[in-house]
Each structure stands twice: as C-alpha cells, then as structure tokens.
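Q&A log
Question type: sequence-to-structure
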Amino acid sequence: MDKYNIDNFVRGWFVGGFEPTLYKTTDVEVAVQHFKKGDKERSHCHRIATEITMVVSGKASMKGMILKSGDIIRINPGEFTDFEALEDTITTVVKLPGALNDKYMEK
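Response status: OK
Response body:
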C-alpha cells in the first residue's frame, strides 16, 4: 500500500495518461478538484471524451446551470461548458476516454 496526497497532482488529476499520475492509462482520467469562490474556467469542449462532473460540496455554475452538492452532469463530446465556483467547491471529474490534447476553447 502506498500513500499520496491530492496536492501532489496537477489540478487534482490523479489517474490518466499524464505525469504525475497514480495509474497511467488512456482509458480514463479522474480528478478531485478544489475551487475557491469566484474561480472560473473558460468555455471549452472535448471532441473525443465524455466528461462526468459531480459537485461533492459547494455550488457552481456550468453554462448557466446551477449545480449543488450531489448534482452530477454528463458533458458529451462536442458540448461546450464553462465553470464558475459560486462558493468554495469540490468536484470529482471522470473523463473517458482519457484523450490527451482534447480540449478546445469556445471562440
């Protein structure tokens, strides 16, 4: 058994085809992400991957949809979304497949 801390990984991503990772695979990517109130991510899509995001705690807005603790959304390939933490927020994100370089910003 090995012990790690989420702070040792880039933006909370700890499974996937990147470095550092706990399990190197291109089948899936997994993250637990911590956001402070007011943190934002620009609108983007993935052309290959489906992204599933669960709000573990806090409250966020994605494309105008308000999400609270326990809410889960699935973002299909080609769908654009943005992100804004309306409170301090923790999310769990699963992206499959784990397609590297599959992030396209909305113009």
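Response note: The mean pLDDT is 97.
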